[in-house]
Amino acid sequence: MPSHILIVDDDQLNMMPELNGYEVCRRMRAMPEINRIPIVMLTAHDSLEEKVKGFEAGADDYMTKPFEPKELQARVKVWLRRAVTVEREAGQIVGKTISVFSLRGGVGVSSMAVNLAAGLVELWQHPAVLIDLAMVSGHSALLLNTPLKNTWGDLVPIPKEEITIDVIDKALLSHKSGLKVLAAPRHPEDAELLEEEKIIHVLDLLQSNYHYLVLDLPHNFTPPALAGLDASHAIMLLMAPEIASVRGTSMALDVFASLGYPRDKVRLVLNWIFERRGLSPKDINKVLQDKIDLVIPFASDTFVSSINLGRPPVIDDPETPIGALLEDLAFFLSKDEHRKKKPEKPTEAWKRVVKRYKARKN
Ligand SMILES: Nc1ncnc2c1ncn2[C@@H]1O[C@H](COP(=O)(O)OP(=O)(O)OP(=O)(O)O)[C@@H](O)[C@H]1O
Ligand SMILES: [Mg+2]
């Protein structure tokens, strides 16, 4: 994982007569071992031509002097995060990682994550892992009625270097559906002791060992949330039809943009958690200047019974409208290699999705 960023400062580079900053960039970009290291150019030249020349030489960013150290720090942070993502994408990754996120609490993040993860297992019969990154108050294991025998807390005393996939597997809970769960620690103080580096390491190992990872994220941008968002291939950004939630969604979109996430990594999901008097999707689109991708209808009966019984509707009630919608969503978010060809042994879930798809087409 890269922890480097190169800042090319022309004051220093001019001291080397035959190798200027542009040439350093060009040579670095031609060297496969280091060509993914982000390069920020720092120079007194602020003409458009000089900037274009910098970008053409392979720089990722360009700052002119004098500059505010704080701005440089902020840019370095963004580039380091982006470099981690690029590195991951270039590696041998198997696991598609989908996170569910909202800056407001209580809008259905955990319900959605649990159903999505369970839906993926039902569809493909590959073990998937539901990872609770809401370290302080996470309750995904509860939604599956799985006793909290193991949690993230098990990994607290183990040094990062000693955490292998076998060690992580021992910390996973097993649901009878085949879904694995890495549950939030039982004690909130354990959450404090899980460093970002360790969380990233665990996510990396799980990604290269499981086909699907679904992340139940906290409602903030703390290190666990950022580690999860960075590792994700898709983010379900959830909101309720009320103004505070829409405002939170708008803020989250801004932060995602500043982190360099491509817009198509994000799906905007409106979850109708109350029965009436919500903002209309049309008004929400207007406020966000963007388009909601999916609306989940109010379905208190299904959700409440599912919570009380610890059985997600996608497993228990796949024929109800909400169960079917969540199953279709799991299919839609599946890996291309799974979606695009008929499985050797199609599961009941797969057959239902295909049947509904055909019915919609006719
Ligand atoms: N579409 C829906 N229709 C009706 N009720 C819903 C719907 N989606 C979620 N709920 C209910 O909303 C409540 C909050 O859901 P959930 O716990 O999944 O949200 P959360 O964002 O994870 O909350 P927290 O802030 O506690 O982590 C639950 O009681 C759940 O049953
Ligand atoms: Mg939750």
Topology:
Layout: E1 6-9, H1 10-13, H2 21-29, E2 39-43, H3 48-57, E3 61-64, H4 69-90, E4 96-101, H5 109-124, E5 128-132, H6 140-143, H7 165-171, E6 173-174, E7 180-182, H8 188-192, H9 196-207, E8 212-216, H10 223-231, E9 234-239, H11 243-258, E10 266-271, H12 281-288, E11 294-296, H13 300-309, H14 313-316, H15 321-332, H16 336-339, H17 348-361
Parallel strand pairs: 1-2, 2-3, 4-8, 4-9, 5-7, 5-8, 9-10, 10-11
Antiparallel strand pairs: 6-7
The chain binds adenosine-5'-triphosphate and magnesium ion.
Q: Give, in order, the helices and strands.
A: EHHEHEHEHEHHEEHHEHEHEHEHHHHH
Strand elements, count? 11
How far apart, in Å, are the first and last alpha carbons? 49 Å
β-strand percent reads 5-15%
CATH superfamily of the largest domain: P-loop containing nucleotide triphosphate hydrolases
Strand order of the largest sheet: 6-7-5-8-4-9-10-11
Major sheet: size, sense and barrel closure? 8 strands, mixed
The poorly predicted ranges are: none
Radius of gyration: 23 Å
Q: Tell me, briefly, the overall form.
A: globular
User: Helicity, in percent?
Assistant: 40-55%
- Which structural class best describes the helix and strand composition? alpha/beta
Reading off the top of the CATH hierarchy, the class of the largest domain is best stated as Alpha Beta
Q: Into how many domains do the coordinates divide?
A: 2
- Mean of residue pLDDT values: 89
The CATH architecture of the largest domain would be 3-Layer(aba) Sandwich
CATH topology name of the largest domain, in short, is: Rossmann fold
What is the tally of helical segments?
17
Tell me which ligands are bound.
adenosine-5'-triphosphate, magnesium ion
